[in-house]
Description:
Helices cover 58% and strands 1% of the residues. By secondary structure, it is mainly alpha-helical. A two-stranded parallel sheet has the order 1-2. Helix 3 (52-75) packs antiparallel against helix 4 (81-98). The longest helix is centred in the N-terminal third of the chain and has 24 residues, at 52-75. The N and C termini lie far apart (49 Å).
Amino acid sequence: MAIELLADWMAYNYRVVPSGMPRMSTPLDAAAERDWIRQAHKTIADLFERRPGLYWADLLISAAVAWSATALWFLAPAFSLWQLAGLVLAGIAFFRAGTFMHEIIHMARGEMVWFKRAWNLLIGVPLLMPWILYRNHVEHHCRAHFGTPRDGEYLPLASAPLFETIKYLLQIPVLSLLALARFGLLTPLSWLIPPLRRWLLTSASAYVSNPYYRKPFPARERRHLVIVEAACLIWLGVLLALTILGPISPIHWLMAWILHAFTLGLNWVRNLAAHSYSNRGEPMSHLAQLQDSVNITGQTWLTVWLFPVGLRYHALHHLFPGLPYHAMGEAHHRLVEKFGPDSPYQKANHDSYFAVVAQLWRRARQTPAADSAIGVWRHNH
Length: 381
């Protein structure tokens, strides 16, 4: 059964489609935009049903590979090829399993509840990234927030000097340490110190790439947050106890940091090709949001590993956020076939990750400090 489900998933996500067409889309007025979106939705309307069996099989296999490779990373002879293979495979598998957080956020509150719990047990709590801290992602799809300082997942890197992109990348080694401090130190202290708790709920309870994002964590979700905070704290307590008793040594903590940072770094680097990051803070229409986003349509090994679980169809996801990951390959194929090269959708399609990042890099190099859009973000948090 699992093999059949994975075969279906491969057929959906790695179907060869045209990707090198010229981008000749013309602007549409509001009425034409709404009509085009309705036509696009009608074209793929039968693809919105989730397939729970496929979700479970994909998650469980990815998690099994991740934890098995982690054992290899820790147990193989130091500096051996086997140890390196364990690190690389574990990081990639954890990244793949971790990106199901994105699918979970787009599920209804009562949908696939045990899958959400299993994800937290297998990935979220051990990696100190419970999915509830990503609930702010829904704002990333809101027309009033997308591409503005209120969007936790948008930084105008292409409209800011290159230093801002370099600073963004230099954060990668620190991300894991911030997660450790957030759950191992600040969580218990905040339970005892109300002002610290208020700060934590406003400034350190959302997974964002926009460091200027500030918003109180929703009151209706705080009970859930406390439960997963306690679970993460217990997990860290067990690891600390094993360190004191001897089975875990400081070198193991260093190795855990390397693996964790590598896993988070894959997503951090992948994120550079999620959008153009050229908006300067103005609200954008639904279609403009689509065209600021990126589909990576080239069939390369990098696409397979760096854009798992539907992430390579990021523009398609912004067009239809409720579309499940296993249907995106087929949906993309239908939209390209129906609308052809002279369509709003085509503008979002790019052949390679490197071409998208190179474009961001060139735009950033051409942006003088005096014209940086980052100032808008700094002054509106």
